[in-house]
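seq:
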Amino acid sequence: MILAIISILVFNAIAFFPEKRMNKLEIYSTSIFAVILAFSVDYILEVTFHLYGYFQKKAQYTDLLVTLGIYPAIDIIFLNFFPSTRRIVTKMLYIAGWSAFALFYEWLSVKLGLFYYNGWKWIYSVPIYPFLYLLLLGNLKLVRRLWRSDVSKEKLKV
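struct:
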């Protein structure tokens, strides 16, 4: 539980105190997407197939605390500092670095009891993290495209 509390405090401090390159709508919509994605994946892999879980092998409020306290903050940090104007190699290294961090954090979470495996193996996560980060980027691009489209339509109405 200590890792969860420290993670929530640190990740949220990093997410909300530095200057943002994302507007409030982007932060809100991408955070909601991250939470829904986490709940969906956890429901399938944790509840349906019992492959892993948080803390203990039963549903508890602390699972909700972890999902709501950590995933949106990580989403905001990752997207806010994404080097969108840099070369593709830099972007790939950024995603690889975040994937390595996520793998390390998952390993640490298992060692400290925040997370447990019940059929899941750490190696299964290796290809998943880059895919998840690309999904977060794709969602942000969609939000921005929809925003630009709505703003353009508003200009036409005036």
